[in-house]
Amino acid sequence: MTEMFDVAVVGLGATGGAAAAHLAARGARVIGFEASHPGHPLSSSHGDSRVIRLGYFEDPAYVPLLRRAYRHWRALEAEVQEELLTITGVLHIGAADSAIVRGTRAACEAHDLAFEVLDPGAMRRRYPMFALHAGEVGLIEPEGGFLRPERVVAAHLRVAALAGAVLRLGEKVTAIEPDDGGVTLVSSMGRVRARTVVVATGPWIADLVPELRAVAVPIRQVVAWYAPLDAAATAPGRMPVYLRDEGEAGSYFGFPALNGQGLKVGRHCHFNEPLDPDQPNAPVNGRDEALLDGFMAQNLPGVAGARLSATTCRYTMLPGENFLLDRLPSDPSIIVASPCSGHGFKFASVIGEILADLALRGGTDLPIDLFSFAALKDRRSAEQAA
Ligand SMILES: Cc1cc2nc3c(=O)[nH]c(=O)nc-3n(C[C@H](O)[C@H](O)[C@H](O)COP(=O)(O)OP(=O)(O)OC[C@H]3O[C@@H](n4cnc5c(N)ncnc54)[C@H](O)[C@@H]3O)c2cc1C
Fold first, then answer.
1. Using CA positions, which residue lies closest to atom 41 of ligand 1?
2. Distance 13 CA to ligand 1 centre (A)
3. Which domains, from first to last, does the chain contain?
4. Which of 146, 264, 266, 277 lies 20 to 30 angstroms, CA to CA, from 192?
5. Is 0.85 surpassed by the pTM of this model?
6. Ligand 1 centroid vs 311 CA: distance in angstroms?
7. What is the rounded CA–CA span in Å between residue 167 and residue 188?
């Protein structure tokens, strides 16, 4: 007789790994599939560091989820006995009325989070490594910091495996066939039955969820690392993680020097270049390098030296730069998880809990209305009308 799993998880990056860990910890019979290896370079869950912050400028409605994510990150660290989340503070730089500074301030005030606005004099004294341009201020949120993506993915999968999850690496799911009793997953190695499936396939989400074709758009992202000219000034204990709002020129994120790898920087959405997830990423080119070199020379002068390396990564963008975490309206045994839009990593620990709730209880008490198919449809219509 064919074995019946409670839940199958397809894709074992940040999202699927967290889902597998939460599901297995609750005693569910779980099977996970990963087409390649977790955190591989064509996925979205690699690259040494991810920003985490509580005062969410994008929408204060995310804050309760973030508080819960922080608790899960600390619990995961205790379980695997490894540092995954490092607090450095996150410094938000921009005009006082820029989306990032104004929005972070609003989220901090709405949720009673610690923050401090730093005028140019205070910025020079406290964070002299950052150049400040006319009209700009700093806003430091002390509870922010960074996560280690490769360690996080490995930690969730270790926890899942120890709790009994079956993890099949190097096995691609090619089709999901729903029926009255659940779903059959067709993979490169055979067929597997499960009551419910969580599809968390990042840039490939539309392969198994055709409803998302033309809605979930994988785009190319580039990040680079620069030699720190002053080791003391760029160490994580001294230099915070930062976001910089450059208005119409976009927003940038950057990190202190970690593990001797240099100062990492990227522009959110880079040049917004759509890509075919089945093709290799286009290599880093002169235009990519010029953008990031120019940013570092202008904004961290005297602190950042030569570019050491640069690499590509992938965002999967959804309308409104939001997430999708919901049952497929046409088939509730299929749960779709697309929490990227370039900012999903920090939520992965709580998203694992949400996906386990959806799979095992059919719903969750956590506030996820923002991430439904209905909300996605509204945002898409609003974007098309604009
Ligand atoms: C450069 C960069 C910087 C970022 N910075 C931040 C940040 O600072 N803070 C933040 O919170 N977020 C950030 N993000 C976003 C965050 O990293 C993503 O939201 C997150 O990694 C998404 O993880 P995922 O598991 O959904 O997707 P992925 O990591 O892409 O995992 C999907 C997995 O599914 C597998 N798969 C695909 N198809 C199949 C199939 N048919 N069968 C089996 N397996 C399959 C793939 O091989 C892949 O491993 C950043 C992203 C990038 C690229």
1. 173
2. 6
3. 4-46+149-216+320-385 (3.50.50.60), 89-144+217-317 (3.30.9.10)
4. 277
5. yes
6. 15
7. 14
